[in-house]
Design a protein that fits this description.
350 residues; mainly alpha; 17 helices
Length: 350
């Protein structure tokens, strides 16, 4: 298993890695770098989500059209280029589509589990089509992903992506088990986000190295990059749930609080709070007894104890670890683009 930054090694706040370019510019640079490939990937996604059962493409098109940035498939395409995958090849494009299908399937399932009404600022699929349809179409997209893996023909690729799929499910189940439990530890929380988010980031970048027949050291480096990037991404996401405007977050602010999810801002505020404050967290998160003013109180407690500041600092530390993992690769536009993604993931907070 590739080493990645531990919770204890997170350093003090630092400037966001990846330079001073705005976050959206960093993502645009990555997209421009692989534009031809991502356009082919998008067409393949549309093609492979078709079915004679009309509800399947209808529901799948709804979530695909909801404005996702295709970050994970972009990572696969850029990682393959970084490792010298030859122009004109198609394996990286098919596997990028596979990664996006896995991601989209998990989104459909997550929204059902979380009873979410919004996804990327629009009505979620389960809100429009119902829970049963969302779960079943999610299963269909998982099946499409595995067909793309089989079509690739590499047992190594199949092992990486199938393991990632299992790990994502484990992370979601662990989150379900720890939900509403203020006794959850930081280590358990990190296990959750390593599973539900970081595992697919790591697989997306590792398979880019695999299709390019890269040496093990480069595979491991891209795995570490993706894993640390994924943890940073989720840490920022969890912090924004208590800090962002709804338009920035793309979902209802405070959803994690209302659902009783135990995230790092909560863990830090709980550990640093008074007994009366801990009683507040137990009432609102464990017993799920919430009033209209409780979210504002939760946000105030998290700010009072520096929990947002320290969560963002932790995200920056994981971002720095992601950048360090890329240091074995030569300077060039591919490496710069992947470094820029770190800025994109973290600067969503600003």
């Amino acid at each position: 298993m590739t080493a990645y930054l531990s919770a204890e090694s997170a350093g003090p706040p630092a400037a966001p890695p990846g330079g001073t370019a705005p976050a959206e510019d960093a993502l645009a640079a990555l997209t421009d770098l692989v534009r031809a490939d991502i356009e082919i990937c998008n067409r393949l996604i549309v093609e492979r989500m078709q079915s004679p059962v009309a509800l399947i493409p209808q529901l799948a098109a709804h979530i695909v059209a909801a404005g996702g940035k295709r970050l994970r498939p972009l990572l696969t395409l850029a990682a393959a280029r970084l490792c010298g995958y030859p122009p004109g090849g198609t394996r990286h494009v098919s596997l990028a589509a596979c990664v996006e299908f896995i991601h989209t399937a998990t989104l459909l399932h997550d929204d059902v589990v979380d009873e979410s009404a919004l996804r990327r600022g629009q009505a979620s699929a389960n809100a429009l089509f119902g829970n049963k349809a969302s779960v079943l179409v999610g299963d269909f997209l998982f099946a499409r992903a595995f067909r793309l893996m089989v079509d690739d023909g590499s047992l190594k690729v199949l092992a990486i992506l199938s393991q990632a799929s299992a790990t994502i499910a484990e992370g979601e189940v662990l989150q379900l088990v720890t939900q509403n439990d203020t006794a959850t530890t930081e280590d358990q929380y990190l296990q959750v986000i390593e599973g539900k988010t970081a595992a697919l980031f790591a697989a997306a970048t590792r398979v880019g190295a695999v299709v390019a027949d890269s040496p093990p050291a480069q595979e491991d480096a891209l795995d570490a990059y993706g894993r640390n990037l994924g943890i940073a991404f989720q840490l920022v996401d969890d912090a924004l749930d208590y800090a962002a405007e709804q338009e920035t977050l793309g979902k209802t602010v405070g959803d994690d609080f209302r659902e009783g999810k135990i995230t790092l801002p909560v863990l830090l505020a709980f550990a640093r709070g008074t007994e009366a404050e801990r009683a507040f967290w137990r009432r609102t998160l464990e017993e799920r007894e919430q009033t209209e003013t409780d979210l504002a109180e939760a946000q105030a407690l998290i700010l009072r104890h520096g929990a947002l500041r320290d969560t963002f600092a932790r995200a920056r530390a994981y971002g720095e670890a992601a950048l360090q993992a890329l240091s074995i690769f030569p300077e060039g536009q591919e490496r710069r683009a992947l470094e820029g993604v770190v800025a994109f993931c973290i600067e969503r907070a600003h």
